[in-house]
Sequence to fold (312 residues):
Amino acid sequence: MNTVSCSLLFLSVCCLRCCLQTDIPKNMSGEQNPSGDTGMKYSGVFKSLEAVKKCLHSEKYFNLPEVQELLKIFNANSLASNNEVVDRSQRKVFIVLEGIDASGKTTISNRLAKLISGRQLGTPPAELLGLREQFDKHELELRRAYYALGNYMAAEQVRQIYRTDPVIMDRFWHSTAAYAIAQQSVESYNATLPPEGDSVYEWPNDLLRPDIVFFLSVSESKRLDRLMRRKSKEVTREELKMKDDKTLREALQEAYVRMILPPLVPVDSDVTVEQVLRQLKKILKEDYQIDLPEIEDYIPKDEKSGSGVLQQ
Fold:
């Protein structure tokens, strides 16, 4: 990136990596991964829809009522397999916002969708939210399979929308994979994150790829302050664990940073809503030739510089 703020963020990431070398146990042994292509054992990192379905149809999970309901909803909402890549000239832009809990994804994706005259989507998609609490109680592999299947459902929704309207997505595959990688790296005996460039960080070949993925970077003090300000206090078990585990938070942040194809574009979200949107506006114009309208017309008074507070 060619902006000063993004350069500073990359420097902070380098410092984070140095910390991770001592905070995370090392020397994880290589094993075949049933969920993906990497040689490391990372359950729940699914690299294809077929791999997700194989997990859900396994003898271990298939007869669970919530799995049956999940597959029923997916089959009712999914179209025939469609991996067609639509030329950029024949559709609108598809942008994803990533980041840990309380980095500002929901607020910023909502405001950016309005700025770009697009549609805001999120994962898991609305059709699956009623099952989220049940799956969050299960072991990691089944939890991640639920979120992974939701990604493929969301991709179908994007395909139906982005021929006419831009799409802004609140979380997508990067989150699903990063949580699985980070949790196992921290909790497994003698474990470490896969090295940079490992195929575990690569986007699945059969999942619709976004044009741009922004990563909202937030300090822990700001993140905790936003969690306290939230109107809704509902959080997942994984988010509660992350709140109490510094090593897990750092591993998660680093797993995000190592994602490739597509990489994540860092954005400082420690600032106000207006300031975050100004960063996005500059990056979109300079690097992607996407020109947004004047931000002032889309920002409520309580979100102006100096007073606006991100919460989600």
